[in-house]
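[Q] Does anyone have a clean structure-token version of this?
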Amino acid sequence: MAETMNSPMEIDEGFLPSKSPTNKGKSVISEVSSKSTPWVEKYRPQSLADVAAHRDIVDTIDRLTNENKLPHLLLYGPPGTGKTSTILAVARKLYGSHYQNMILELNASDDRGIDVVRQQIQDFASTQSFSFGAKSSVKLVLLDEADAMTKDAQFALRRVIEKYTKSTRFSLICNHVNKIIPALQSRCTRFRFAPLDATHVTERLQYVIKAEGLDVTESGLAALVRLSNGDMRKALNILQSTQMASPHVTEDAVYLCTGNPMPKDIEQISSWLLNESFATSFGCISNMKMRKGLALVDIVREVTMFVFKIKMPADVRVKLINDLADIEYRLSSGCNDKLQLGALVTCFTYARASLVAAAK
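[A] Here you go.
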């Protein structure tokens, strides 16, 4: 076991998702699921073979499970990339129908203090293990959102991991690995789950669309994939909420349901910012924002992405993107919308002046 934990298995690089077989990621949690069941749960992968992406990671964990060499795991990366689904699939493979008796699942953002480590986790790890006919008698502690744990709790968890390694495996799941203390990181085999490729998100959405019998246009599907940003959970939530609001899932319906500005709106806003006066730009953007119920932070975020498509000198682009990032940060901190809209128009005014000067 020690060899496994200290081997080159400690993987920090992102894996390129390999092409999975056409039958991967196609299972449904239950045929009797009610219509009100969130699709993120209804269509959660039930086995390692069902996980649609990150095949290199999944196949490695599957091999370690088959060889009974499963180490402590640290799965990290953005939300909705399959971290929790992967470890739950591992638990089902190890314990079958008895897995509920063999795992302790905690959300560390709720149970984050040292008392939880000393009581719930240590009590579970110290009790005698009964396999109940499962393939493995080693128990599993699953700590979701482990980066929310206090430092004291993490140090206490380190001691528990050391003490109960023979009978218990620990799986830590987090978004930000830098918030996990080095002492815990060194005791786990690390896997990074990168944002899902658009192809995998599209394939999974197409399966759900077919299973639910939805009317989704090609532009609507493209909008779902674009707004998900590699987050499968987000993509399914947007799809479900949109079909509840509209019988036809179109691009307009998706953007209307989420409240995000449409690409054509961003093009229009960018045109105003680059070509009109301060007063005209400010007034036009304010009117569109109020008329369509758009959030300024979403406008700033989308305009930032649009800046990458505009041909301009590198130094002008860098300054403009930094200015936009400052505005987005201030908006997220609760600053006044009108002031930040003025700052948005102002930074483009300076950028336009720099472009004119560069042209001369």
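[Q] Thanks! Anything notable?
[A] The longest helix spans residues 337-359.
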